[in-house]
Amino acid sequence: MTQAHFHDRDSASPAADGRPPARGELDLFDLAELAWGERWLIAIIFAVVFLAGAVASIVLLKPSFQAHSRLLVLLDEADPTPGAAGSGGAFMLEQVLQSEAEILNSDAVRRRAVEFIGPAVILGESGNEADALKVLRDGFSINRAPNASVLIPVFEHADPDVAALSLNAVVDSYLSYRVEVLVGDGVGGVVGRRAQASAALESAQDALDQFLISNGLSDFEADRTAAVERVQSLRNAILTAEAERLAATAGAAAIAERLANVPESIEHYVENGASNRLLDLRLERESRLARYQADAPPVVAIEREISELEAFIEEGGANGMGQRRVGANPVRQGLESEQLRLESVAASETRRITTLRSQLNEAESLVARMRGLTPEYQRLSQNVTATAEAAALLATQQAEAQARSNAAPGSEDSVRVIERAVPPAEGSSLKKLGVAAAFLFAAALALFAGLLRGYWRRHLFDGGGGAAAARPRKPSRAANSNTRPLATVSNLPVLARIPDRS
C-alpha cells in the first residue's frame, strides 16, 4: 500500500497575506511543552492559591465533638405496652427499635430538651428556640448496634460540654415523652374515642328503630323470614285445597254416573197367609196328638193337609202372592247423600282456594315490599354493627390502657440507659481534608492558567513585536516531495501521523 506524506501541522510558514499559521491538534507532548514553558507562572499561582486555601482551612475549620449515649430496649413478655417487643422474633424487634428510634428522633423530644436546658446553652449565645431546634436537628443522629437491641444517639457540636449536656437532655426528654405517648396519654384518648363511638352507636340504633317503626316492623329479619314462610305455607295450602276439590268433584261425578243405574224405589217385602196357615196347622196337629192316637182320623186328616200345604209352598205356588210393600231404595239414598257431601266439599274447597289466593297475594306483596327495604335495612344494620364493634374494641382498649397506666413503672423500664453522654476528649476536624482540597484546587487552577497562557501566546496571539511567534519547526521531507499537499485531502479523516525524523 502506498504511504502518503502530509505536511506537519506546525511546519507551514505564515501565509504571504499576513494570516497566522494554521493550528493543528495538540497531543500530550504539546501540553507538556506548554506547561513547561509556563512553569514559573504555574508555580506562582499554585503557591498563592494553596497558601490561601490552607490558611483558610486551618483558621476557619474548627473541630467538632460527638457525644454518644446508649439505650437498651428490653424484650419483656410480661409488659404488653407498645414499648416492649413482646415475644416476637426479629421482625418484631425491628419494628420496636424503629418505633423507638422515631420517637427519639422526633421534634417533640427535641423541643422538650430545648425547653429543659434553654436555647442559650445550645447556641452558646442568645438565640430563639427555632435556631436551637435547627442545631439539634442538624447535629443529632441515631445509630444501631448490629445484632443487638441497642440504640446509639449521637449529637455533634463544637463544644464538647454542650454536646454531652444536650444529648443527655434529649435522652431524658425521650424517656419521659415515650411514657406519656405509650402509656400515660392512652387512657384519656381512648375514653374520648369511646364516648364518640357510643354516641355514634346510639345514633345508628335510633335510625334503625325509626326505620322499623315507619315501616310497621318489629324485627326485620324475623318478619321477613315469617313472610317468606307464610308465602310457602299458603302455596302448599292452595295446592292441597285444589287437590281436595278435584277429588270431591271427581267423586261426585262418579256417584252421579252410578245413580243413573240405581232405581229410586224397591219392594221391601210381600206378605201372604201360606206360611201362617202352615204354622197354624202344625200347632193344630200337636193339639190333636195330645187327644187322639196317631192313626186317628183327625190326626191323619190334619197331617195330610199339612203335607199338601208344604208341597204347595215348596213348588212356589205362594211366591208373588199376597200383600206387597214398595219403598225408597236405601242404596240410592246413601249414594245421593255421599254425592251431596262431595259437592259441598268441592264448593267449600273452592271458597277456601279463593281465600287462600287472596292471602297469598297479600303475603307476596309484603315479601316484595320487604325485599325493597332490604338494602336500606342492611345499611342501617351494618352501621349499628360497625359502631357496636368499634365501641366494644374501644372499651377493651380503655381497659388495657388503664392496666398499662397502672403498670407504668415497668413500661418505663423497657428502655434503659446503658451509658449516658460524657464530654468527648477528642474531636474530629476537617482541617486535613481542607488542606488537601486546597492543594488539589491550587494545582488544577495553576495548571489550567499556565496551559491557557501558553496556548494563547503560541497559537492565538499574533504580535508583530511584543509577543513571541509560534516556534518554527524544521520542514518535513514530505514538503519537497511530489505528494499531494494537505489542503488537497483535507476532507479525508487522518488515521495516523508520522513524525518527521529528518
Automatic annotation (TrEMBL):
Pfam family, one: Wzz
Transmembrane segments: 40-61, 433-456
Keywords per UniProt: Cell membrane, Membrane, Transmembrane, Transmembrane helix
Topology class, membrane: Multi-pass membrane protein
Residues in Polysaccharide chain length determinant N-terminal domain copies: 25-114
Subcellular localization(s) per the UniProt record: Cell membrane
Name under which the protein is recorded: Wzz/FepE/Etk N-terminal domain-containing protein
Organism: Hyphobacterium marinum
Lineage, opening ranks: Bacteria, Pseudomonadati, Pseudomonadota, Alphaproteobacteria, Maricaulales
